[in-house]
Automatic annotation (TrEMBL):
Residues 116-155 form a coiled coil. It comes from Salix koriyanagi. GO terms for biological process: DNA-templated transcription. It holds the Pfam family DOG1. The lineage of its organism: Eukaryota, Viridiplantae, Streptophyta, Embryophyta, Tracheophyta. This is DOG1 domain-containing protein.
Length: 246
């Protein structure tokens, strides 16, 4: 069932992903030019990297604003295909997948990608970041578990508290409704906290990796993650289309 927040974000996300595709073309073009031309315009590359990173920040800004109205819309997204949702980790991509992508690029020696030419110092810093991010992921996962337990505890607490206040004139339907309302309010606040914590880990991962890379490597990195996100969406849509025809 589509809610107002789900519809708003669906519209925003379609425009956002289209803009991301446009940025991807610019990233690929910049990467190809720098492979041919050894004279790098560092400022031009940095400007492009800043525009793409701001595009990601804009995504989270809108997401957080709408999630405050209805956070459940982001845990059960109507704008994502089943394939996209299968890769989701607390309403978005899992931060540790970034390091797998970098590792895969280096192992496969992707032609034209400067990510295949990381220095030992860069590799060391990225590994340190990977370990740190994994710990933060585990912290988010523990927080989700804590919220689930807290919801059950709040419900039991309110049950005991309200039982003592139920009057003869108050129907059980009214009583149950108040109990559900209290539990639901606590659940929404808890889920919003988990979602924002997960998003913060995503943002710290992006910033952490970009801080280690050179401007050209940043271009290649952003191109790789943008391409992956767009391709998963395209594959998901194709699978949905085939499923509907069968």
């Amino acid at each position: 069932m589509k809610g107002k927040v789900g519809e708003k974000f669906s519209e925003f996300f379609e425009k956002w992903i289209c803009q991301l595709d446009e940025y991807l073309q610019l990233l690929l073009k910049a990467s190809e030019q720098r492979v041919i031309n050894t004279v790098c315009d560092q400022r031009e590359l940095q400007t492009l990297v800043s525009k793409v990173t701001q595009h990601y920040k804009d995504y989270f800004t809108i997401k957080w604003c709408l999630a405050h109205e209805d956070v459940l819309a982001f845990f059960c997204p109507i704008w994502g295909s089943p394939l996209e949702n299968a890769y989701s980790w607390f309403t978005g991509w899992k931060p540790s997948t970034i390091f797998k992508l970098i590792h895969s690029t280096g192992i496969n020696r992707v032609p034209g990608s400067s990510l295949a030419e990381l220095t030992q110092e860069q590799l060391r810093k990225i590994e340190e970041l990977r370990v740190k991010i994994r710990l933060e992921e585990e912290k988010v996962e523990r927080e989700m578990e804590r919220q689930q337990v807290a919801v059950a505890d709040r419900k039991m607490f309110e049950l005991v508290r309200l039982t003592g206040r139920v009057r003869d004139s108050e129907t059980m339907d009214q009583f149950d409704g108040r109990l559900v309302e209290v539990a639901l309010k606590g659940l929404m606040a808890g889920l919003e906290k988990v979602m924002k914590a997960a998003d913060c880990v995503r943002l710290r991962t992006l910033k952490g990796v970009l801080d280690v890379l050179t401007p050209l490597q940043c271009v290649n990195f952003l191109a790789a993650i943008s391409m992956l996100q767009i391709q998963i969406r395209q594959w998901g849509k194709r699978r949905d289309s085939i499923s509907r025809k069968e």
